[in-house]
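Sharing in case it's useful to others searching the archive later.

Someone asked me privately for the predicted structure of Iron uptake transporter permease EfeU, so I'm posting the question and my answer publicly. Question first, with the sequence:
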Amino acid sequence: MFATYLIGLREGLEAALVISILVAFLVKSQRRDRLPQVWLGVGSAVLLSVLFGWLLTYTSTTVLDSSAERELFDAITSVLAVCFVTWMIFWMRRAARSIAGELRGKLTDALALGSLAVLLMAFLAVIREGLETALIFFSAAQTVGGQNGPLYALIGGLLTSAVLGWLLYASAVRINLSTFFTWTGALLILVAAGIFKYGVHDFQEAGVLPGLNSLAFDISNVLEPGTWYATLLSGMFNITPAPSVLEVIAWFAYGIPVLVLFLKPTRRGPAKPATSAPDRATPADPAAAPQNA
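And my answer, the predicted structure tokens:
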């Protein structure tokens, strides 16, 4: 549940920041008349993301007949989810400093084209986060079986991010976004390592990869299944008491190098001079919160 809460919180806050930047820009530009188009675009993106998540679940549980087909489908979606997680955290690390300016530029162009362009721009700005959330959640939830807890945790994370996004927009709180995205990014890499390990296990279950019964170790007497700590490690990082050799190799082959690359300090370019003073009469731009992710 903590893993899916983290997914909802991280992805939700990214979407909330995007929405806050768009809304703040329209308010400051005296273009409140375009706010309905923004909200319609956001709502459409959320609806399509929910539909995509339902389609993944329906395909896995209903469309596919044999267990081998379901295992293969789950394995492929797990690998895709790992790719999206990896791309997302490194993209945010690189683009966090410029995302606000890019969104304002795109929204300015959309305003010149009309209401449909504003709706489409808002839709495209949010749909990526929504589809990523659906895919990553589906893959993470598979590691704990058919339980409702991960879904409730995801909803909780999304609601938390919505509250934080509103507070940032209203300048009620200030969050060091660099610290937030660094810590959540590192945790998500470990979650992704577990998802990748689970995908390898599913490939083995489907007969695509060998070595299902070649165990790397068996610590069931220490990490007893059903205990709270075994459930926590399994649900969060997919650490199981009797993994195969290939599963362990997959976990470390992904988790260690990606974590090292992510935490490696990056060089910063020279800061751009401010072109205008902030408008204190309007809601603060949430992107102005401290960040160097």
